[in-house]
Amino acid sequence: MKKILSMILACAMVLTLLAACGGGGNDQPAQNAPPKQEDNAPAPETTPDPEPAPEPAGSITVAAAATAYEETYPGMWQEVCDAFTAETGIEVTLICDKTLEDVIGPAMQGGEFPDVIHLATGREKALTEQFIKDRNIAEITDVLSMTIPGESVKVSDKIVGGFTDTTVTNPYGDGVTYLAPMFYSPCGLFYNAGLFEEKGWTVPTTWDEMWALAETAKAEDISLFTYPTAGYFDAFLYALMYSVGGPDFYNKALRYEEGIWDTPEAQQCFDIIAKLAENTNPITPAQANAQDFTQNQQLVLDNKALFMPNGTWIVGEMGEAPRADGFKWGMTALPAAKAGGNGASYCWLEQAWIPAEAPNLDAAKQFMAFLYSDKACAIFAKGGAVQPVPGLTDNLEGDNKMFYSIYDNGADAAMGSFASYNAVAGLGSIQEVFFDPINSLVNGSLTRDQWVSDIKAASDQMRANIME
Predict the structure, then answer these.
(1) 271: part of which helix (H) or strand (E)?
(2) Other C-beta atoms within 10 Å of 259: how many?
(3) Distance (Å, rounded) from C-alpha 345 to C-alpha 328?
């Protein structure tokens, strides 16, 4: 009987639960349940899910040296960055400073790198050379085949042939491009053409004529030569080596070939620089630094020195400087080694590059490709900066037209630079070995023979550690 009663009670409880689940027999919808839909009634309208927010295009940091071009057209780099953002949606934070190395150097030592850096080789701090030595620059050969943002052409279609085949852009001699060729400028000897017209002097075409003019100018209390900083002798020495020894000697010298500095061509180059040191305005070394170099350039504007090595940016850099009455810019190639030979002008080439540890590599490459766009080229041109893009020199006027025609007037073009080498304890940079000592040549604290001896010793180490 107890078992039967238990079964009856259990069945009663189940029936009670089923009745409760049935809603108590009324037709009202349960709370929170969807409303009951009549047969054949239209389905209620539903609000579509909102479109997902577009992914942000990202952002990059660009670091660019504020050179004379930026002074000529302030805000040049910012305008290019803004144009890139408008084209791609990628935001750009710009760092632009004259002493860029000092601004970005500490952060990079701490592991924070810009995505793109515009900083040429040949500067006093040699930051770019250090990155090359340490192999800390990203390969950009693929950028050449990229389509320029906003255009339908590839980067390689916009760069004049030969500019991506130099030791400057391909520092390891392996056919791989690591540095992008940016602004280029024919370098030579700048002078006051108005003074030459006034005096009836002829611009020398050989070094023998140059030394004769030195004596003539000395009688007028004018020095033959000055230079902004010793670093400006890089373009000078390259052009000198090319004009004295031609391409064969030049290319061997750039790779420190054994015995190259004992050749007659090398000795002639050393002799010319040593004699120039004797005919340089004596105040030059004291002002040959990043703070005072324009005072050396002022010596030419004031008719206290005849010639100085420089590039086309000098016009903008000294645009507001006082000058002698009748001053007119003149530019000539380095004189020929002998009568009937060709002078030479080094083609100075600035570079843009991407650190190997750049945090936004793909966007950085897009920005680098954009640097060759018609929009970017037009903006750079406002500052007098000319890129190796076909047709850009066609629109030049005034002084720049005269400067860039130097190769049309018979001067040979020298390109490239000394080969990069692996870092070696105690071995200085190219700047420290070849060029900085010229200040000491001028002030007499270093002899020509000691300078050459030091170059030979350093070259042996450079050759042994050359990057392949």
Answers:
(1) helix 264-278
(2) 10
(3) 20
Whether 213 and 308 map to the same domain: the answer is yes
Q: Which residues contact 37 (CB under 8 A, 6 or more apart)?
A: 43
* CB of 116 closer than 8 Å to CB of 60: yes
pLDDT recorded at residue 409: 80
Taking CA atoms, 397 is separated from 204, 326, 386, 394, 402, in Å, by 25, 20, 13, 9, 8
The domain containing residue 230 runs over which residues? 188-347+421-464
Number of separate domains in the chain: 2
**CATH code of the domain in which 221 resides:** 3.40.190.10
Residue 84 has phi, psi (to 5 degrees) of: -65, -45
Classify each residue of 306-336 as buried b or exposed e, where b means 16 or more C-beta atoms within 10 Å of its C-beta: bbbbbbbbbbbbbeeeebeeebebbbbbbbb
Which secondary structure element, helix H or strand E, spans residue 332, and what is its range? strand 329-332
**Has residue 16 been placed in a domain?**
no
pLDDT grade, residue 136 (50/70/90)? very high
> Same domain for 341 and 454?
yes
In-domain check, residue 459: yes
Residues 96 and 222 in one domain: no
CA distances from 86 to 78, 91, 155 (A): 12, 9, 19
Cα distance between residue 177 and residue 123, in whole Å: 21
Task: Give the 3-state secondary structure of residue 64.
Answer: strand
pTM for this prediction: 0.73
At residue 60, the 3 state secondary structure works out as strand
Task: Express each pLDDT in 256-311 by its tens digit.
Answer: 999 999 999 999 999 999 999 999 999 999 999 999 999 999 999 999 999 999 99
Would you report the helix, strand and coil content of the chain in percent, each value rounded to 5? Answer: 45, 15, 40
Single out the residue of 186, 243, 250, 247 nearest to residue 388, CA to CA: 186
pLDDT tens per residue across span 175-233 = 899 999 999 989 999 999 999 999 999 999 999 999 999 999 999 999 999 999 999 99
Same domain assignment for residues 309 and 458: yes
- Give the tokens for residue 141: 């050969």
pLDDT in tens, 44-84: 444 455 444 444 579 999 999 999 899 999 999 999 999 99
Q: In this structure, are 362 and 425 located in the same domain?
A: no
Q: Looking at the structure, do residues 173 and 216 belong to the same domain, yes or no?
A: no
Is 39 part of a structural domain of the chain?
A: no
pLDDT at 246 over 70: yes
Shared domain for 202 and 230, answered yes or no, is: yes
- Going through 339-411 in order, the beta strands assigned E by DSSP cover 344-353
